[in-house]
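Troubleshooting: if your tokenizer reports a length mismatch, compare your output against this known-good record of 142 residues.
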Amino acid sequence: MPTDSPRAVVPLTPTGQPAPTQSFYEAVGGEDTFERLVTAFYAQVADDPVMRPMYPEEDLRPAARRLKMFLEQYWGGPHTYSEERGHPRLRMRHAPFVIGERERDAWLKCMRTAMDEVALPAEYDKVMWEYMKRAADFMRNA
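Known-good structure output:
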């Protein structure tokens, strides 16, 4: 999964000075939005017959916290994920699990439902969904 954050183009003021910018993370509502997204996602995972077996922990809260930290960092928020866990190394972290088209599609179904629940403005939803599709496909190892 690509781990480079989206790069913001810095707009200039009429005097040529950099204008204040807002990260994607801030633009979509910051921590509250990512908390809602991850909560909605794991509510789907908990009942999904393909996804749930891929989470060995009985309690999904630690996995939810890790995903939230990763997404926040990726989209321009706090760097808590790297501070606590180091480089994401997502393919390595997911290597113990067989992830084929079926698993990718189940993950995307859960994420799409979560994103629909959060209901980002269309322009942000499109950008995030394109990333989610690329990331899910990148994680395939079977």
